Amino acid sequence: MIVEQLSLVDFRNYAVADVTLGPGPNLFVGRNGQGKTNLAEAIAFFATLGSHRVSADAPMVRDGADAAIVRARLAHGERRVLLEAQVNRQGSNKARVNGSPVKTAELPRYAQVVLFAPEDLQIVRGDPSARRRFADQLLIQRAPRMSGVLADYDRVLKQRTALLKSARARGVRGDALSTLDVWDDKLVDLGTQVIRARLALADDLAAALAAAYSAIAGADHAPEAEWVLTVGGVDAEDDDETLTTRDAAAADIASLFRVALADKRTAELDRGITLVGPHRDDLRLRVRGLPVKGYASHGESWSVALALRLASAQLLRAESQLGDPVLILDDVFAELDADRRARLAGLVGDFEQVIVTAAVEADVPGDLRARVVRVEAGRIQEPGDE
Question: Ranges for the RecF/RecN/SMC N-terminal domain (predicted)?
Answer without folding.
Answer: 3-359
